[in-house]
Design a protein that fits this description.
CATH class: Alpha Beta
Structural class: alpha/beta
Bound molecules: dihydroflavine-adenine dinucleotide
Strand order of the largest sheet: 1-2-3-4-5-6-7-8
Number of helices: 12
Strand content: 5-15%
Low-confidence stretches: none
CATH topology: TIM Barrel
Mean pLDDT: 92
Amino acid sequence: MEQIMRNMFLYMAKNQSANRLAKRYGLRFGARRFVAGETVDNAVTKTKALNEQGFKVTLDHLGESVFTRKEAEEAAKDCLRTLDAAAKEKLTVYLSIKLTQLGLDIDEAFCLEQVRGIVARAAGYGYFVRIDIEDYAHNEATLRLFNRVRSEFPDHIGLVIQACLYKSKKDVEVFGKEGVNLRLVKGAYKESPRVAFPDKADVDKNFIHLLEMHLTNGCFTAIATHDDTVIDHMKQFIANRGIQKDQYEFQMLYGIRTQLQERLVREGYPVRVYVPFGRDWYAYFMRRLAERPANVGFVLKSMFKS
Ligand code: FDA
């Protein structure tokens, strides 16, 4: 049953009509639990509060699967506005971006120019940009574009790698040799068993393997998970190997396992919260429901409240 619901939410995440409707009607159905608000001001306010509590933040101006140049250019401007606002308020943040929001499906060269502009602005402020990783269909193009921008701004850009994909071991090996700053995640998209482990236990095992590999290679590693078993294992690994705090951080999503986030900060670990905001919340929200179909309970509650 859980698998059926998971597949259903991942299928719904791709529904463009529902996405358009959701944008028009604002944050609904409990999405506020996972999304910090609709405006840059909302995001700045939430980030300030998180920074004061000892968290670092990565901001994500929500959006993906954009198919017109105008929308993609608008998305790039939103990223620049976010960076400007963060710098003005001296926030401890970086930016997470999705390439399909910036025109990857329209024209790769156009997308490259947009990303270059965003990373140049971030570098000017001493900030960093992380390219989120999307579904397998966009994987190779994302890596290609990342490598192009990295050659110009090596210290200001990083990538995400998904443990669910068979190819990721090779990617982490290559990036490990080149000292690339990676966020490792399990993977949030529905993929074919031809390219990804169908069994969650294999994903979890590969996740730990890739985390250990990248840390052992001496590279900065963002351990992005809410999974207690992985977190406890990595705490032990970090302690045993004497890995310093400037080589890793734990990362979690806004609104998910907040008590665990707070506990890690109290214990002295570096923790960064991924703070999504904006009107284009629908697909992001569907993926969060897919990860934990039990979340549907509070969606129903919020529907009866409003
Ligand atoms: P797992 O799914 O095994 O969950 C472990 C426990 O965490 C659950 O038992 C539950 O308690 C809690 N939990 C997890 N998800 C929850 C939810 N939605 N609601 C409530 N509780 C939940 N993916 C991707 O493909 N590309 C990307 O760029 C990113 N970026 C990214 C950044 C950051 C900072 C994080 C934390 C995650 C991502 N992801 C991602 C998502 C990632 O791939 C994965 O889908 C989720 O993190 C869920 O997997 P966990 O590792 O948390 O483990």
